[in-house]
From TrEMBL, chain A:
InterPro entries to which the protein is assigned, alphabetical: AAA+_ATPase (IPR003593), ABC_transporter-like_ATP-bd (IPR003439), ABC_transpr_LolD-like (IPR015854), MacB-like_ATP-bd (IPR017911), P-loop_NTPase (IPR027417)
PROSITE patterns reported for this sequence: ABC_TRANSPORTER_2
The organism of origin for this protein: Paenibacillus phytohabitans
Name the record gives this protein: ATP-binding cassette domain-containing protein
Keyword Magnesium in annotation: no
Cross-referenced Pfam families: ABC_tran
Gene3D superfamilies linked to this entry: P-loop containing nucleotide triphosphate hydrolases
GO terms, molecular function: ATP binding
Top-rank taxon, per record: Bacteria
Span of domain ABC transporter: 7-246
Keywords: ATP-binding, Nucleotide-binding, Transport
Automatic annotation (TrEMBL), chain B:
Membrane-traversing stretches: 21-41, 247-271, 300-321, 341-361, 417-439, 645-666, 695-724, 736-756
The protein's name in its UniProt record: FtsX-like permease family protein
Keywords associated with the record: Cell membrane, Membrane, Transmembrane, Transmembrane helix
Record flagged with keyword Membrane: yes
Upper classification of the organism: Bacteria, Bacillati, Bacillota, Bacilli, Bacillales
Entry keyword Mitochondrion: no
Domain ABC3 transporter permease C-terminal, chain residue ranges per copy: 254-366, 645-758
Predominant location category: membrane
Pfam family, any one: FtsX
Length: 254, 772
């Protein structure tokens, strides 16, 4: 069955600075992400991976081109409409766990949902507890964020992203600050979420992480220079998948 | 990197840098001005009192005077250097007409005198002793200042016309607080107008050694010499001369302290905001091996520059305003001899401000030490751990809007950060409410009972005349037959001797009569009801060391009689030293008499005042409101003005401090703001969060400030009021202004500043701030 387009980016350009300091970060990127896809974007530092993610999620206004999400042109949406979209249709996971220091872990997870629906606090809390159970941090609910490990906080961040049952999760180097075991745990979790139907777009420069996805885009100097597809990861032969990716990288010279 | 930081700092906070400089300049100017004024004032007073030969001891007296007895006393007393009795012709204000305008509205006791022979000279504006020619009059300098007279004006008194030849400085009566004013005429003219008023005597002494003044006063009292008027001494004259300008200096100094505090807060919040924004760069500089002192130097240089410029500007400004403020001192007292010293003190004052500012900057910058380079480079913001408020959970919140919850939660978890803001708001509420309550209190009609004045409609004063008791009885009889008067009370003051525990005697002014008709407020105990009871004014009770229930021995008609202190009350009249009792004496030695009356129809007060004033021209008749206005009108209006100024200044400070605080907060929170935005919180959500923080702190601040104002403020205002005789009072609060208008104004100013100060949240980009 043909999957429905979820995000379409056409000829996206973005620059920072002006005059002599002007730096083109995205130089005409076109991209499509379908419902339920597991996509990764790879590339060296400064290639524009994160900026592309910010552009597709409406966190950064673009200078040229067009981005649509579920058929809505992000360029025509007001800041508040973009915020609503992020809160209800997307989830985010960053390299460092972006949790509020003055809230405990449970409160951090329910935070965006409580904005719209605090009357249903009981229902929201129940859902959060189920998600925490699922990702293995149920016992941390009342803890401060200083009382949890990086991996646990990242799991909490994923729970928060899942609270609104979004169509897509954007993950920017989600394992970048974690040790290998914790990183594998997070990737297992993201694979599971994807298997349940949520699209995942992750940005990474680590081939072993990208190897868990089905579609890998390679970026260099603000452009997508190549793309490859892999079969769904079954838990076997990760080395073979990594080898294919690194061969591709050598081929395109990044 | 050094220059980039300084450049960024100045560019980012042009307005604040300028504001800081202006505050430093204002503080430097005020401190310099007060130093210059203090030196000039004390110098000018000394010069004036030296030139004039101000008496060391002066007793005012009206009525019969046994001059040879005085001369004998002065000759026999070894402490006396010189002695003289001056005549002072007290003339009713309506009878003195300058250029067609009478002095009827003057609250001063105006009178004429001739130049004295030995000391207590009246001086011209160059400090020379004046000799008035026939037909000439010299007018007190205060009438030049208020424009009543100029050189060449004509002054008519008792049918005689004199020409104003100049103005005079009077070392004892210059001050507006001294209630008499002397006009100088020639001996010949004085003799001609002598019958137009009543003569009072100024019995003056100069002592060989001023330090024997206390002993001399006892000698004078012990000798039982005439004394039915006020007694004044050299230190008192000095204080009278210093007090009005001294008060101004005190206010300027207070204002400068306030301004320095505001400058400190500006610097603190700007610096903290700068440190927060440059957190990563500071970490990098520390990481590459720069010393904390190198980093401090950059900021210190900037603020030392700002402080130096501000100080120089302030010092220059002090020159501009110096003339204006010294004008009054120069006019009333003449030049000071120590102008170089004044300049030196001004410079020292400015230097102190400069040093205080740089020392403060240095202190704030010790924060650099606490920045861990690794953390700064990694996170780019300080990773301080929130404290407390663990039980205040979002998951348990059903009541508050999530944004409001987040705002309050933030305040609770960063208490020390918001503490500064809270302190400003508490102080601000306090300073806004206390003067206002004080004003409402002293302006309210019931307040007069705290001042030792009965709450009546009319007040008749009979003093400095003969046969006071008889005259009072005449008036009482007239009132008895006057149907318009519903009740009245005659109170007669006599000076009685009180025996102290050490055996010595002191004179006590005791007001005799029925004190139940127009009672005053008693801070302790009750009014005297029985013959053996006496109530003391707060100042007297304090001086005599008596409290309610204690006994006191009074000499009544030559016999010692034991009385019990029934109560203590506040009094601002007669220097606050009075007593009240109901017994009668056989003595006719009455100092003065006051008759209070209440009218059946209070609207008739005006006509009754006129009627009684016409009928009993020896009595000073006033409606009680008028009496209060005359006595305390200027105080009431000054307090009113001060309260309005306090409100305006505090509102301005609220706006400034909130604005700076919010900007610092936004700089500190930019990572959290970016996270919030990435989670789908809108700019208006963030505004509501910051608004909630402000409102929460504001509410606590206003409640604490109001509570403090009504407790500590009341005590402080009580201390202020008791300094002029009244004690134990409660604020009369106008609920509309204290509980509605003031909080509304405060809330308005803080919330507007919050909106402006947090406008920057909208400009914070997620992409630039979320990556740590």
């Amino acid at each position: 069955m043909e999957m429905k387009k979820m995000i379409t980016g056409i000829n996206i350009t973005k620059h920072y600075g002006s005059g002599d300091d002007k730096r083109n970060v995205l130089g005409g990127v076109s991209i499509e992400i379908k419902e339920g896809e597991f996509v990764s974007v790879m590339g060296p530092s400064g290639s524009g991976k994160s900026t592309l993610m910010f552009a597709l999620s409406g966190m950064e206004r673009i200078d040229g081109g067009r981005v649509t999400f579920d058929g809505r042109d992000l360029g025509t949406l007001a800041e508040n409409e973009l915020a609503d979209l992020r809160r209800t249709g997307m989830g985010f996971v960053f390299q460092q766990p972006t949790l509020m220091k003055n809230l405990n872990i449970l409160d951090n997870i329910i935070l965006p949902s409580m904005r719209d629906n605090r009357r249903n606090a009981a229902g929201i809390t129940e859902k959060a507890r189920q998600l925490m159970q699922k990702v293995g941090i149920a016992e941390l609910a009342q803890r401060d964020i200083t009382q949890a490990s990086g991996g646990q906080l990242q799991r909490a961040g994923i729970c928060r992203a899942l609270m609104s049952s979004p169509g897509i999760i954007f993950a920017d180097e989600p394992t970048g600050a974690l040790n290998q075991a914790a990183a594998q745990g997070i990737m297992n979790l993201l694979s599971e979420i994807n298997a349940e139907g949520t699209a995942v777009m992750l940005v990474t420069h680590d081939a072993t992480i990208a190897a868990r996805t089905e579609r890998i885009m390679f970026m260099c100097d603000g452009r997508i220079v190549s793309e490859m597809r892999l079969p769904k990861y079954s838990g076997k032969d990760i080395e073979g998948r990594v080898e294919k990716i690194t061969a591709k990288m050598r081929e395109i010279g990044i | 990197m050094y220059y980039r930081i300084i450049r960024n700092d100045i560019l980012k906070s042009k307005g604040i840098t300028l504001t800081t400089m202006i505050f430093v300049a204002a503080a430097a100017m005020l401190v310099s001005l007060s130093a210059i004024l203090v030196v000039n004032l004390s110098g000018a007073i000394d010069t004036l009192m030296k030139q004039a030969g101000t008496p060391h001891f002066m007793q005012m007296h009206s009525g019969e005077l046994d001059k040879p007895r005085f001369t004998a006393f002065a000759e026999q007393n070894s402490k006396v250097d010189e002695f003289q009795v001056l005549d002072f012709l007290n003339v009713e204000g309506t009878r003195i007409v300058i250029d067609g305008q009478s002095l009827a509205d003057s609250v001063q006791d105006n009178g004429f005198s001739t130049q004295s022979g030995k000391f207590d000279y009246l001086l011209d504006l160059d400090g020379n002793v004046i000799t008035a020619a026939d037909g000439e009059v010299y007018v007190p300098v205060t009438y030049m200042k208020d424009g009543s007279a100029k050189v060449g004006s004509t002054l008519a008194v008792a049918g005689k016309t004199l020409t104003v030849a100049g103005f005079l400085r009077d070392s004892q009566m210059n001050s507006l607080l001294a209630s008499s004013k002397r006009f100088l005429v020639s001996k010949h003219d004085y003799a001609e107008i002598k019958d137009s008023g009543s003569t009072e005597y100024l019995i003056e002494f100069r002592l060989k050694d001023l330090s024997t003044l206390g002993a001399f006063e006892s000698d004078y009292t012990a000798a039982g010499l005439e004394a039915n008027g006020p007694t004044l001494t050299y230190p008192l004259f000095k204080m009278l001369n210093a007090i009005s300008d001294g008060l101004m200096i005190a206010v300027i100094l207070l204002a400068s302290v306030l301004v320095v505090i505001i400058a400190f807060m500006c610097i603190r919040f700007t610096l903290l905001a700068t440190i927060e924004s440059d957190y990563r760069e500071i970490g990098v500089m520390k990481a590459i091996g720069l010393r904390v002192s190198d980093l401090k130097k950059i900021y210190l240089a900037k603020y030392a520059g700002v402080a130096a410029l501000g100080s120089i500007l302030g010092f220059a400004l002090s020159f501009v305003f110096r003339g204006l403020l010294l004008e009054n001192i120069r006019l009333y007292m003449g030049e000071s001899e120590n102008s170089a010293l004044a300049l030196g003190c001004g410079v020292i004052g400015v230097l102190l401000v400069f040093l205080a500012v740089t020392a403060y900057v240095n202190r704030v910058l010790t924060r650099f030490r606490k920045i861990p380079p690794a953390e700064a480079i990694r996170f780019g913001t300080s990773q301080e751990q929130p404290a407390g408020s663990k039980r205040f959970n979002l998951s348990g919140n059903r009541l508050l809007n999530t944004n409001v919850f987040l705002g309050i939660k933030d305040v609770l978890s960063r208490k020390s950060l918001y503490g500064t803001m809270l302190a400003v708001l508490v102080i601000s509420a306090f300073i806004m409410i206390v003067p206002q309550n004080l004003y409402n209190t002293i302006a309210s009609k019931s307040f007069i009972t705290y001042m030792g004045i009965g709450d009546s409609d009319l007040r008749l004063d009979i003093q400095q005349t003969g046969n006071i008791a008889g005259k009072a009885a005449d008036i009482a009889q007239a009132m008895e037959q006057d149907a318009a008067i519903s009740r009245y009370a005659v109170l007669t003051t006599q000076a009685l001797k009180v025996k102290l525990e050490d055996g010595s005697e002191e004179r006590l002014k005791v007001e005799l009569g029925d004190h139940s008709i127009f009672p005053v407020a008693y801070s302790q105990g009750n009014r005297p009801a029985a013959e053996h009871e006496i109530a003391l004014s707060a100042v007297n009770a304090d001086e005599l060391g008596k409290k309610t229930g204690d006994s006191l021995t009074l000499m009544i008609d030559g016999e010692a009689r034991e009385l019990t202190v029934s109560g203590i009350y506040s009094d601002v009249t007669n220097g606050g030293k009075t007593a009240k009792a109901v017994f009668t004496t056989r003595s006719a030695e009455v100092m003065w008499s006051v008759i209070y009356a209440e009218l059946a129809d209070p609207s008739l007060t005006g006509s009754k005042v006129t009627e009684y004033a016409d009928r009993f021209n020896y009595a000073k008749v006033s409606g009680i409101d008028e009496y209060v206005t005359q006595t305390f009108g200027s105080t009431i209006s000054s307090v009113g003005k001060a309260s309005r100024v306090a409100i305006t200044v505090m509102l301005f400070i609220n706006v400034l401090i909130t604005l700076l605080f919010m900007r610092m907060l936004v700089a500190k929170d930019r990572h959290s703001i970016a996270v919030m935005k990435s989670l789908g919180f809108t700019n208006s959500d963030l505004t509501v969060q910051y608004f909630s923080r402000s409102v929460f702190v504001l509410l606590i601040g206003m409640v604490l400030g109001t509570l403090l104002a009504n407790t500590l403020g009341q005590v402080l205002a009580g201390v202020l009021i008791s300094s002029f005789g009244a004690s134990s009072f409660k604020f009369v609060i106008n609920p509309l202004s204290a509980y509605v208008l003031c909080p509304l104004m405060m809330a308005g100013s803080v919330l507007i500043a919050t909106i402006i100060g947090t406008a920057g949240t909208g400009r914070i980009q997620i992409s630039g701030n979320i990556k740590e």
